[in-house]
Amino acid sequence: MTSHTSLDLEARNILKQNDRGGYTIPTAGLYPYQWNWDSAFAAMGFAQFDIARAWQELETLFSGQWSDGMVPHILFHQPDPGYFPGPDVWGCEGPIPSSGISQPPVAATMARLILQKDPEAGRAAMGRLFPKMRAWHKWFMDWRLDRGAVCVTHPWESGRDNAPEWDGAMARIDPSDVGEYTRRDTSHVDGSMRPTKYDYDRYIWLVQLGRRLHWDQAAMLEENPFRVADPTMTFTLLRAHRDLMVMGELLGLDTKGMAQEIFLLEKGAQTLWNEELGSYDARDAKTGEWAGCISSASFLCWLAGLPSDRQAEHLERILDATNFGVPSHDPASDRFDPKRYWRGPTWAVVNMLIGLGLEDAGHPLGKRVRELTRELITRFGFAEYFDPMTGEAAGGKSFTWTAAVWLGWASPARGRT
């Protein structure tokens, strides 16, 4: 078995190899740009051996922030014709060529972990980042709330691209006029592990809609048929806002109004409780329909400071039914697919977020999730995601955020974060 010391070194080398000078790509070839939430995890990973580089990662991410506060999900720092859809397809006008949607706002949560490691080293950087993070969170509050829960307007915005939660809203989209395009992802990864053409046609249709509307949030609110209140977005924003307020108070910055915003998000999170399912669930903001999905996102409630005994029962059941952490979709569901991206595989980053929340609450399942993730990476390496039954590596290899999770949370060299 690979030693933990050698895995620590390999994980560091992956971060260094994927470093492009101030920002980190997820993996060469498949993802050649800076991705939003990947980058936040990368910063947390760098913090285990290079605090200055960790803060640089976050500052580079926020250098692409739009004037309205939005932080894009992709920053196209350098041209790369091997990736689709690139900046020419998105047609955005931010300070850096970018996509027109955002991603789960985990940056403040990762920043707090980094700040805790060396408060003095991070004081100046966090002082600069605080108003930018606050503006980004406000953007979500202004444009993405439905009854206090945070919505996604594109499956990519959720970070969980082809999750079953989006099936209902996606089915209402007619992409017959989307035109011809050439995917690049399936040239790097087996197509059976990626979203289908059915999904991709709708992804591109939504991008074309946003471009036609010049990414105007008010216009998109009216015209976009895809608007789903999402546990991932809601729970990560709630946690991030709590973390940002704590850091603001620590640094003596203005946190006025943040407690009220947290209260609003707490109320919004409760609108995602599907009593019939006995779980947090995605809710279509256009139709009010439930997705009927118990997913890894459902278990982020602890991260948000919202413990649930009934959710714990589901988690224990699911961990008993699998072998390597929390699958992205309930294996008891007929929509479960252990190898297709967000329809079943387990992801080290989501395991970490779930585990952190459980550990914060003092729940014994937190230790179990951490140990399962440790065993998974030890045995199967630093893949993008894994089959939750066999542990088989899937997706991209030498993956930044999996390496970061190892360094910052899963490695035996790490105590309680």
TrEMBL record:
InterPro entries membership:
6-hairpin_glycosidase_sf, 6hp_glycosidase-like_sf, Glycoside_hydrolase_63, MGH1-like_GH
What GO MF terms are annotated?
Glc3Man9GlcNAc2 oligosaccharide glucosidase activity
Record-level GO BP terms: oligosaccharide metabolic process; protein N-linked glycosylation
Supply the Pfam families for this chain: MGH1-like_GH
Domain of life the protein comes from: Bacteria
- Every Mannosylglycerate hydrolase MGH1-like glycoside hydrolase domain range: 31-402
Instruction: Specify the protein name.
Output: Mannosylglycerate hydrolase MGH1-like glycoside hydrolase domain-containing protein
Tell me what organism the protein belongs to.
Answer: Roseibium aggregatum
Lineage, top ranks: Bacteria, Pseudomonadati, Pseudomonadota, Alphaproteobacteria, Hyphomicrobiales
